[in-house]
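Do me a favour: review this protein, sequence plus structure tokens, and tell me how the chain folds. Record follows.
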Amino acid sequence: MSEYYKKLKKLSDEEIVDELLKNKNSSVFAILYQRSAHKVYYKCLSFSNDKTVAEDLAHDIFLKCF
């Protein structure tokens, strides 16, 4: 793991978003995704009560974010 990536992992979500907007680096987005994917999925599952629909919704949300 690179030093850049290690430093990024220590940043707050807001700082990571700033870094993402500045550099447009998909590795930066990956950190944000890792931190929030489960939360987004389970929120979508609470709305849909269907695992497949929840996965699709979560996927769409992250595509829109990126």
